Fold these 3 entries.
Entry 1:
Amino acid sequence: MSFSLPSLPYAADSLEKAIDKATMEIHHGRHHKAYVDNLNAALVGHDTLLVKPIDQLMGELKDVPESIRQKVINNGGGHANHSLFWATMSPNGGGEPTGRLADAIKSTFGEFSNLKAKIKEAALARFGSGWSWLVLASGKLEISSTANQDTPLMVGNLPLFGIDVWEHAYYLRYQNKRADYVDAWWNVANWDEITKRFEKGS
Ligand code: MN
């Protein structure tokens, strides 16, 4: 058993409303693939860890020997974060959430635009590489941000979606304009998938 790179659930050129084809191909086929390959390499000889679902592995780091823990954080986190990232975008995305998730957003942040503003604030405040997240923490919605490939799963929170703010995620089209990339990201937000995660976690 080993971890494998999930296929993109859509064509690489189908998220042009936010992300260009070349970025998608390099990001998925090279960056995400490298996380998977490096994770598998780190876990050679650790068969009980190789069979765990990736989200479970990242939530149980105490079971990972210290000698390889940072490699698992970097590469297992990279695998978990990117797998979620692809799934929570869609060519048919955009718009606003509905139903119970919309209600929870409203009671936590007020207007939907406030959620967007806070996600953007966290994305822009992240110095260097990392992620801006909407998570469920003890059943409540929270905005958070992590450095590098750290995942909210490491502290027991459930990420509903995250925006990758590593330069590899946006530099070809947006260069240094991280804010423009974050603004465009909402055009591909897959609220069906994000809502499913919310329903399962809350
Ligand atoms: Mn990335």
Entry 2:
Amino acid sequence: MQKICLFAGIRVPLHENFDAMAGYLVDDARKVTTHRLIEMKQQGKKIAMLTAYDYTMARIVDGAGMDIILVGDSASNVMAGSFTTLPVTLDQMIYHAKAVVRGTQRALVVCDMPFGSYQVNPTEGVTNAIRIMKETHCDALKLEGGVEIIDTVRKILDAGIPVCGHLGLTPQSINKFGTYAVRAREEAEAEKLISDAHALEEAGCFAIVLEKIPAALTQRVCKELRIPVIGIGGGPADGQVLVIHDMLGMNQGFSPKFLRRYADLYTVMTDAIGRYITDVKSCDFPSADESY
Ligand code: KIV
């Protein structure tokens, strides 16, 4: 028998593995902490992470049983329509993170530090990190880079703020890379990535995102590190992350090899909006039942 749940008054059919109280395959209803993520790696349990940028989406993602919600600086692309992640500001990230935190009960909420907010020097980095934590009440921050930013990472950790690293294809450096192609195929770049990952772990990061690198390199980092490695376009890892608009099929033009689409919301939404337009124009909506 198909399971149904009520979301915002709408009947939503659910996957057979969904438990309305606990979400998808969730065996622990407690708030996710950075310590529990490390325990999950030790126990061989995979970590699910997805982006969200607003309250309503965060409620759905959290209610489904997500372990980590990332308020990604991909907000710059999918929310604001910018070509890269560089333009999004600290104030805009704070706005998105506040909304996501309001919609989240169980997942660990990680907010990206935007480009320019931590690269100048460690003092400016920690000042901006504290501002994000104070104003948004999120649980942790994510920064892109390895040894170049290690003093800043240490200072933020010293302030008591959990940090997630991000290596490989780091989108804030797209102008340096010049391409979104797979990173670290060459030995020198792969060796640097491995030593950066160790430096981030030794500094005290609770997890590292590895983006668009060869699967064998991801496997090596997963084996060598105690902390969880979350992959995106890096093959199997301790966990996976995707941008929610991409996995829900809202971005028709974006279809890299690593992306699995779980829905075709572009078509679903276009159809619904089209039917609404037809109903308004034909005076079918609102009906007598929909009027006071
Ligand atoms: O901003 C973002 O969405 C990210 C993920 C792609 C990891 O950093």
Entry 3:
Amino acid sequence: MTKDRLAWFTDARFGMFVHYGLYSIPARHEWVQNYEEIDPSVYERYAERFDPDLFDARAIARTAKESGAGYAVLTSKHHEGFCLWDTATTDFNAVALAGRDLVREWVDALRAEGLKVGIYFSLLDWHHPDYTVDRHHPQRNHADVAGLNADRDMARYREYLHAQVRELLTGYGPLDYLFFDFTEPAEENGLPGKAPSDWDAEAILAMCRELQPDMIVNDRLGIPADLVTPEQYQPVRPLKRDGELVAWEACQTVNGSWGYHRDNLDFKSPDMVVRMLAGSVALGGNLLLNVGPTARGEIAPRDREIFGEVGEWMRRHDGAIRGAGPSDFTPPSGVVYTRRGDRLYVHVFDWPFGLLHLPGLGGRVAFARLLNDGSEILFREVPPSQEAFNMIPAGPEPGTVTLSLPVQRPAVAVPVIELTLSEAS
Ligand code: GLC
């Protein structure tokens, strides 16, 4: 069942993550309430300032689609507890405060653009009066944490939590992906985190399976589900659970902050993003690239530019990404391989001078072309015995296919050579 559920996901390979909430107003990272230890009674005043007047879900969906993403995930509620949907569980929500059911707008827009629908939901809730002060809570350094927790009842919070998940699972039509966040039981500075039992994670997962059986659920309930979600790093090997390969998705920001961070200009280059995408697919994973819309709800020009550049690359190279996955061949250094059917895609991170030696492909290549312009790439298999004498010591091994590349690197984020493979002889 999991494999079927994941079919569209492993085909899409690339998604857009959208972090939007009250934290977009201070614009100092979505953990600003934690970092600056802002009391919930003070932080909630941002709700009076919440004005998503430029939030255009259709425009965001179009940006995602044009970037080559096959799905997109919106934060319905982040750790701050502010809900972007029409919830009956609390007035701390976008309908009550701004007259907008942004989750409704989101799901409608994605479906209209033919994208798969993802929702992020934070299990943490720093606003709820029964959510116990723990290692991540903004009041973790309060003089009397025990006193704060004395009247808090996590059983009441679990009722609230389950009611909210149920609203999302029943009120917005078929969902394709629910990204829960996050479960970290470990103690820090004498305060516990939250364990799966704090959420009754098994019951939440069972609810998801009952109400949305085709929907993908991630691993952040703290119990195994459909995929693993490494965050803000790129895995260096395929991911396995109990020795079996698992689906995974690396979630990444463009500048280290998930929420809009006005003064953080430390952006990843589009080339780096494309390398992360190709590198993820080469190891059997997906990339979920984040954008944090401004307080008014629009994607900032700087972020739109990055997604636009990735889209420009995907426009010519999506065959090497969508529906592609790892290959059994071992690439040389400075190169990653993705494979789709009889096509092997050579993503050249370090452009060589004239020749690129691909070991282990002897007798397997029928044709080679640069993907960006479709131009033929000539290649040869030269057994070492026929190599020039000064290329034999520690030169290419038998079975190496040598591509003759233009000295000038193609002007694309990552040049890709598409090899059409012939059957092993
Ligand atoms: C971490 C952060 C959270 C962010 C999430 C994205 O859990 O706490 O702010 O939304 O990663 O995966």
